[in-house]
């Protein structure tokens, strides 16, 4: 349902200028189904795609002063748009949830977000005792960045696009030192995000209210026009005898 088109049509019918604030809804006429599918979403909005810029493994000193194997990634995200990123254990083919460290009770992402266009994340590798005994271990990680926006001004901020990369890294362990001996990166295509069921319901509700309001305005204008025409026809012409 193209709410923007309906709103513009209402403005033309009522001949009353609509005060509009600049938002993403002014820049796209996509339907809710197009948004969920994410087809050419970023290109339509004129937003640059997020990217997994660079990832690497290394041994670093954590906040407790311990040496730990870690995976780090730099992400590039669109300037001015809320974005977040993380590196999670597992394959991106299995991890479908958007990047989000903190959520409220209803599942809405609370960030932390950045809008400056760059994010660096660190994930510590889980090292089992058997890994130390064997002297090496290989883990798979999913590096993912998500761009969040309230596309239809519904009050729901959801992931509208994401970039992902699968990381397969092998560390060798010797004398309590961690060394990267193998590192593979599989970049996946940036994709449009999807709305949650609650957000889709809110969009549908908003569109229904908008269409109902437009219908009311149209019918009211027609009734007023019809009433005026009836009064004009019933009024005696100038100069005629009563």
Structure overview:
The chain has 242 residues and is α+β, with helices and mostly antiparallel strands. It is built from five helices and nine strands, in the order H-H-H-E-E-E-E-E-E-H-E-E-E-H. The protein has helices at residues 3-14, 32-37, 41-45, 129-134, 197-234; strands at residues 51-61, 67-76, 82-89, 102-103, 109-111, 118-124, 136-149, 158-174, 177-192. A four-stranded antiparallel beta sheet has the order 3-7-8-9. A three-stranded antiparallel beta sheet has the order 1-2-6, with no helix packed on it. Helix 1 runs parallel beside helix 5 (197-234). The longest helix has 38 residues, at 197-234. The radius of gyration is 28 Å and the shape is elongated. 25% of the residues are buried.
Helix-strand layout with pairing:
Blueprint: H1 3-14, H2 32-37, H3 41-45, E1 51-61, E2 67-76, E3 82-89, E4 102-103, E5 109-111, E6 118-124, H4 129-134, E7 136-149, E8 158-174, E9 177-192, H5 197-234
Antiparallel strand pairs: 1-2, 2-6, 3-7, 4-5, 7-8, 8-9
Helix pairs in contact: 1-5
Please state the overall shape, judged from the principal axes of the Cα atoms. elongated
Major β-sheet profile: 4 strands, antiparallel
Structural class: alpha+beta
Number of strands: 9
> How helix-rich are the residues, as a percent range?
25-40%
Low-confidence stretches: 1-39, 194-203
Radius of gyration: 28 Å
How much of the residues is beta strand, in percent?
Answer: 35-45%
The whole-number mean of residue pLDDT values reads 73
Strand order of the largest sheet: 3-7-8-9
Order of helices and strands: HHHEEEEEEHEEEH
From the N-terminal CA to the C-terminal CA, the straight-line distance is 55 Å
Number of helices: 5
């Amino acid at each position: 349902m193209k709410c923007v088109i309906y709103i513009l049509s209402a403005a033309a019918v009522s001949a009353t200028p609509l005060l509009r604030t600049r938002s993403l809804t002014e820049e796209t006429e996509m339907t809710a189904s197009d948004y969920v599918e994410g087809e050419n979403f970023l290109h339509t909005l004129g937003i640059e795609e997020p990217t997994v810029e660079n990832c690497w493994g290394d041994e670093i000193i954590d906040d407790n002063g311990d040496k730990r194997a870690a995976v780090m990634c730099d992400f590039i995200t669109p300037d001015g748009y809320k974005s977040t990123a993380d590196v999670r254990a597992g394959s991106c083919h299995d991890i479908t949830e958007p990047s989000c460290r903190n959520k409220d009770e209803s599942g809405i992402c609370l960030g932390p977000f950045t809008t400056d266009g760059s994010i660096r994340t660190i994930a510590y590798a889980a090292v089992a005792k058997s890994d130390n005994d064997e002297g090496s271990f290989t883990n798979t990680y999913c590096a993912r960045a998500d761009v969040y926006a309230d596309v239809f001004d519904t009050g729901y901020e959801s992931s509208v696009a994401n970039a992902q990369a699968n990381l397969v890294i092998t560390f060798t362990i010797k004398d309590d030192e961690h060394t990267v001996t193998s590192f593979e990166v599989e970049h996946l295509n940036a994709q449009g995000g999807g709305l949650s069921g609650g957000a889709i319901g809110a969009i549908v509700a908003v569109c229904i209210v908008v269409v109902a309001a437009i219908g009311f305005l149209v019918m009211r204008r027609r009734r007023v026009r019809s009433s005026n025409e009836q009064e004009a026809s019933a009024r005696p012409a100038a100069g005629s005898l009563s």
